[in-house]
Structures are given as structure tokens and as C-alpha cells.
Specification:
This protein is of the alpha/beta class. It has a single domain, classed as Spore Coat Polysaccharide Biosynthesis Protein SpsA, Chain A. It has eleven helices and ten strands. Strand 1, helix 1 and strand 2 form a beta-alpha-beta unit. Helix 1 packs parallel to helix 2, helix 6 crosses helix 8 and helix 6 packs parallel to helix 9. The chain starts with 5 loop residues before the first strand and ends in a 19-residue tail after the last helix.
């Protein structure tokens, strides 16, 4: 089984970055994995010290087959950094596992990601593997893994064949959705189309909403686990722009998923459960912080991008 390279995007949170890396190191496949770290430059002098601390730490990382560090000389911001980094890695290696600096992963994370990236490598309709799942109701019984049109951004993977369909131009995406009369379906019970319009106006800068729209318009599917293999530790109130949020509290599983769908089609049950969860957390967008969280989660796009200053908080 080919072992996919891991791209880790970091900025100015040394403590969070350390937790992410240490959780990865506990995976059996870590020693067989190439880790590529993209370290963004400080947007202003305010972040310079914490960016320096992160860079000092990542230079000490071991426990992987190789560690490659790309230190940006200027501030890219999260959206540009991820688009550029994912593009460069998949162009060279054909597939990728993507993490940000506020994610703690299960010890089964790399096993799950590598197995499914190989299993569905030649399935054109499958465009993303997700390792994240939100705290769904105990009354909702889902298969171990299932396909849905919704994408996620908290621990995911893809292939060069799928990433080539990424459309960075939000205006083009909007026009295609309108022309095909797909706005209601695209919203999936949420305000995704509105977020895409904000991207087009420059009011937000999100790679996630554009990737979600690109996958949707291509008729793509994302594989989801019913039990998350990723926990986001960024909503702990430790940073200037980060509130304590309890909507997404989850526990890591005690075993790796072993059952994967053979039929490449969207799970109606899975979609209904996810849409119900999104509706349950659809609070009014009362602040930029909440808007950021909504887009940053990106399956409902609760991953509306952190611009590197306003969405990556400081330790």
C-alpha cells in the first residue's frame, strides 16, 4: 500500500502545533510517512515571536520517514497557503493527507487515511476522504463509513485527479450553480451559497468553500467515518479570535473503521443526519468570530477560512 505524504499547515500556535505532531507520531504509519510542513510568515510584528517559536519547534520534529519544512518568506494567509501547498504536493506525489495546526488525530488516523486513499484511488467520483465527524445524535445509527456530497476540512485527503477540478474563482462557481439551478441543493439546508458570494466579494478568504463548491459541481463524493478520527483543539478560548465552542466536542474512537462502501453513491441516511446536525447548530451569525467558525467547519462549511491573522489564534 502506498503511504501518502502528510501536509501540515502551521502559523503561530506552538502549543497546538506540538499536540498535533505528537498525536501523529503515535500512529504506526508515522515512521513510513513523509511529513511536509508549510510554515506561514507573520502578517505583522505582533505574530513574529510566536511564528518564530513554531519554526524553532518544527525543526526538532522526528519520528517520520522524512520531514520537509517550507518556510514562507511572506504571509500567504491560510487559503493561499493551503491551495499552493496541496497543489505542489499532489502534483509531485499524486495524493495527499492534509492537516492544520489545531487538530489532534486518533492513533488510527494514518491507517484509515492511507487505506481509503488507496481503496478509492481510481474511483473518479470519489474526490475526498474525510477523517472528521461531528457529534451526531445517539439516535442516529450510521454505517462505519459512508459517502456524502458534503466535504470537510478537519483532517482530509485527496488525489491529483480530484484536485485538478478545484476552481479558485468564486464568481465562476456562482455562475455555474445559478445556471444549473442548483442553489437550493448546494445550500444543503445551510447558507453555503451566501458564503460563496462573500468569497466572491472579498469579504472572506476561504479555500474550503471553493473546494466544497468545486466537488459539488463535479458531482463528487466525500467518504466520511461515523466516528471521528480527528478532534479540533482550536476552539479552546486560548486565542484572541477563538471562542469556547462546545458544539463540536467529540471523543476519538477505540478502533479503526474496517467497513467501507462498495457502492459509489451518496448515502441518503448520512446526508439527512449531517443536515440535521447543521440545522441544530445554525445559530445567528452575530459576529465575525462565529462566521469564521461556521465556514471553518466546512462540512457545513464550518471552515470559513481563518485568514492567518484572524483565524489562527496565538498561544
Amino acid at each position: 500500500m502506498p503511504i501518502s505524504p502528510i501536509a501540515l499547515f502551521v502559523y503561530n500556535r506552538p502549543a497546538h502545533t506540538r499536540q498535533t505532531v505528537e498525536s501523529l507520531q503515535k500512529n504506526d504509519l508515522a515512521k513510513e510517512s513523509d511529513l511536509v510542513i508549510f510554515s506561514d510568515a507573520a502578517k505583522s510584528g505582533v505574530q513574529a515571536g510566536s511564528v518564530r517559536d513554531v519554526r524553532e519547534y518544527i525543526r526538532t520534529i522526528t519520528g517520520f520517514k522524512s520531514v520537509t519544512i517550507i518556510e514562507r518568506e511572506t504571509n500567504f494567509g491560510l487559503a493561499r497557503s493551503i491551495i499552493d501547498g496541496v497543489t505542489s504536493v499532489v502534483n509531485e506525489r499524486g495524493r495527499i493527507i492534509v492537516l492544520e495546526d489545531d487538530l489532534v488525530v486518533s492513533t488510527y488516523f494514518l491507517g484509515y487515511m492511507n487505506r481509503t486513499l488507496e481503496l478509492y484511488a481510481n474511483e473518479e467520483k470519489v474526490m475526498q476522504i474525510s477523517a472528521n465527524m461531528f457529534p451526531i445524535s445517539s439516535n442516529d445509527v450510521l454505517p462505519e463509513t459512508f459517502f456524502c456530497k458534503m466535504t470537510t476540512s478537519w483532517g482530509w485527503g485527496t488525489w491529483d485527479r480530484a484536485w485538478r477540478k478545484f476552481e479558485p474563482d468564486a464568481d465562476k462557481l456562482i455562475k455555474m450553480i445559478i445556471a444549473k439551478r442548483l442553489r437550493k441543493e448546494f445550500d444543503m439546508g445551510y447558507s453555503y451559497f451566501q458564503i460563496l458570494k462573500m468569497q466572491a466579494k472579498g469579504e472572506v478568504d476561504s479555500w474550503a468553500i471553493r473546494w466544497h463548491a468545486s466537488v459539488f459541481l463535479a458531482g463528487g463524493l466525500c467518504l466520511h467515518p461515523s466516528a471521528t478520527l480527528v478532534v479540533n483543539i482550536g476552539h479552546d478560548g486560548s486565542g484572541t479570535h477563538c471562542e469556547n465552542i462546545s458544539d463540536y466536542k467529540v471523543s476519538l474512537p477505540i478502533k479503526m473503521p474496517t467497513l467501507f462502501p462498495s457502492s459509489i453513491e451518496e448515502s441518503r441516511q448520512g446526508r439527512q443526519v449531517l443536515e440535521a446536525f447543521y440545522r441544530s447548530i445554525n445559530h445567528p451569525m452575530q459576529s465575525n468570530v462565529w462566521l469564521r467558525l461556521l465556514v471553518r467547519i466546512k462540512t457545513a462549511l464550518h471552515t470559513l477560512t481563518r485568514s492567518n491573522e484572524s483565524s489562527t489564534s496565538r498561544d
